[in-house]
Protein 1
Amino acid sequence: MSAARGEAKVIDGKAVSKRLLEKLPARVAALTEERGEAPLLAILAIGADSPSEAYLKMKLQACRSIGLETSVHSLPLATTEAEAFQVLDDLGGDLHVDAILLEMPVPEPLDARRLIDRIPPEKDAEGVTERNFGRLFAAKSMADIDAAGVFLPCTALSIITLIQEAGIEPRGKQAVVIGRSNIVGKPAAHLLSCLDATVTLCHTKTPDLVFYLKRADIVVSAVGKPGLVTGAMLKRGTVLIDAGVCYEDGVMKGDADFESIRKVAGAVTPVPGGVGPVTTACLLLNTVLAAERRTRARLAA
Ligand code: NAP
C-alpha cells in the first residue's frame, strides 16, 4: 500500500496478487509429483469476443507461470446448448481435468446460468455454480465455508482478500456493498457477514445510498458505473474496494471517483490494478484447491 500525507492508502492489487501467486508453485509441484501430472484447468470459450479473449490470454499466462496445465475448448458462435452441454459433460467426466471455467459472455441465445450449472461443483473453478452458491449461503462463518468444501466466487474472494491484506479487520465494522449480483455483490456481502461485519446490501431501489455510505467503515462497490461513489458520500477513513469495471473511450474505469475519494478514505483500491489482478490469482487458487481436493478424494477412495 502507498499513501501521501493526508491521502488514502492505495491498496496495490498487483502486489497482493503477486503475494498470493508466490505461494502456489510449491503446491502445484507437490500435486504434480504425487499424481504424475500437473493440475489441469479446462476452459470453454464459445464465440469470439475481444475483451474476453484478452482476459483469456492473461489467465493462460498466469496458469503457465505457476506450472498449471490448461486446455482451451473453442466452440463457434452458432453452438447449440446441446453441443455446449456435451463438451461440459465430457470435461466434467474427464479424470485429468481438475477445474472447468466457462468464458463470459456466452453468445445469445445460450443461457449462461444453465451452462454454468452443468459444471460439477467439485470442478467449479470460479465458484459460480448454484450448488456452490447453496453451500456458500448455507454457511454462517468462514469455518463453516471451509468445512463445506465451498469454492468462493473469485471476485468476492478477491474483495475480502484485499480488505484483509490491507490490514482491516471486518469484525464489528459497518460494511456497505453496492450491487447484488450473484457473482459479486451478494457473495461479497455474505463473506463480510461471515467475517462478522454488519452488512447492508444496496442496489438500484435503495432510496438514499448516501445515508448508508456515510455510516460505513468498509464500502464495496460492484456496479460498473464510473463516478457512482465520490468522496463527499463517504465517512472519513472508510475503506473502499472498487470492483466496478467499465470502459469509457477505451479507458478502464471503476465506480469510484478516485481523486475525491483519496482525500477522504483511509484506503482505496485503484482501477485498473485493484480487484482485477487479485481475481485472476483467486481463480488459480481455486484451481489448485480443486486439484488438491480431488487428489485427496481419490486417495481416500
Ligand atoms: P450486474 O450483474 O450488472 O450488477 C450490478 C448491480 O449494481 C445490480 O445489483 C444493480 O442493482 C446495481 N446498481 C446499478 N446501478 C446502481 C446505482 N445507481 N446505485 C446502486 N446500485 C446500482 O454486475 P456484476 O456482474 O455484479 O458486476 C459488477 C461490476 O463488477 C461490473 O462493473 C463488472 O464489470 C465488475 N466485475 C469486475 C470483476 C473483476 O475481477 N474486477 C469481476 C466481475 C465483475 P439492481 O440489482 O437493483 O439492478
Note: Residues 139 and 147 are 9 Å apart (CA to CA).
Protein 2
Amino acid sequence: MKKQIEKVKREKNAVILAHYYAPSEVQEIADYVGDSFYLAKIAKQSTADIIVFCGVSFMGESAKILNPGKKVFMPDLTADCAMAHMVAPGIIEQMRAKYQDLAVVCYINSTAELKCQSDVCVTSSNAVKIVRELPNQNIFFIPDRNLGRFVAQQVPEKNIILNEGCCPIHARMTADQVKNEKNKHPHAHVLSHPECEEPVLALSDFIGSTADIISFAKTSDASEFIVCTEVGVDYKLINDNPDKRFYFPEPHPCCADMKLNTLESVLSVLEQEDRVVEVPEEICRRAMIPLDRMLELAK
Ligand code: 13P
Ligand code: SF4
C-alpha cells in the first residue's frame, strides 16, 4: 500500500501533510510531518497540485484558506476536533460590546466561521509571542481555556478573558495519572502540551506544542520522559531518540479523530479525489485575514 501511495502521489503531483498525532504508518509515508503551525506554513507555500492533509478538519480547512487555489483533500472528512466548536453563539459579540479595544485571539483549533470573527489566529507554538505583541490590552482567547490560561500566566500584563472550551483528550489527563508514572519512573522529566489542565501543567518540567516537546526531548540530557499529550507523538520521539524512554499517562491519551487517517483512506482519497475540503469563498476570504496575521506576527 505504501508503494502504491508513493506511485499515485508522484503521478498526480500530490503532497501528503500529517500531524504528529496521525498513526505512525501515516507519518511514515507523509512528505511533511509537524505541529499545526509548521503544517499551516507548508500548506501556504505548497506548489503541489494536490494537498492531502492527514489531520482533523480545522487543519484541512486552514490549508484551503491559506492556499485557496489548491485542491485540498482529507482522507476522512469526518475527522474533527471537538474543541474547534466550543464557543457559545453570541459570546464574541458580547465581549466586543463590553471591551472597546478587544482582540479576539483564536486558537487555530477552531472552525473557519470562528476564525472569521477573530482578529488573529495562534497555535500552541506561537500564542504567547503573538498575544504579547498585540497592541490590545483586553484579549478574548477562544476556544481553549487551558491554552488561554497558560498564555495569561506568561503575559500577566494583559487582561486575558478565558472561554469555556477544552480538548477532551488533554483535559482527561489527571495529576494522579502523572504522579503514578512519576512513582514508576522517578527520574523522568514531565513534558506537557498547554492544552492540559492546570494540575498537570503544575507538575511539568516543560510545557510546549508537540514540536516543542519533540525538540526539547531531543536536546535534553534526561533519558526518561513522561509525555502529557496525544500518544501519536511517540513515533517521532522514539525515532529521534532510540536510547531514551517515553511514558504516557494511563490510559494513553488518544485522539480517535486523528486515527481516522489510515493508509487505506490516504490511498483511496489519492485515487478517487473525492473527499474535497470545501470552504465557501467568502469564508475563505475573511478567515485568511487572522491566519495571515498569525504567520506575519509569528515571524
Ligand atoms: P500542536 O499545536 O502542537 O500541533 O497541537 C495541536 C493539537 O491539536 C493539540 O491537541
Ligand atoms: Fe482536537 Fe484534542 Fe484531537 Fe488535538 S487532540 S485535534 S485538540 S480533539
Note: The domain at 2-81+258-279 is CATH 3.40.50.10800 (Rossmann fold).
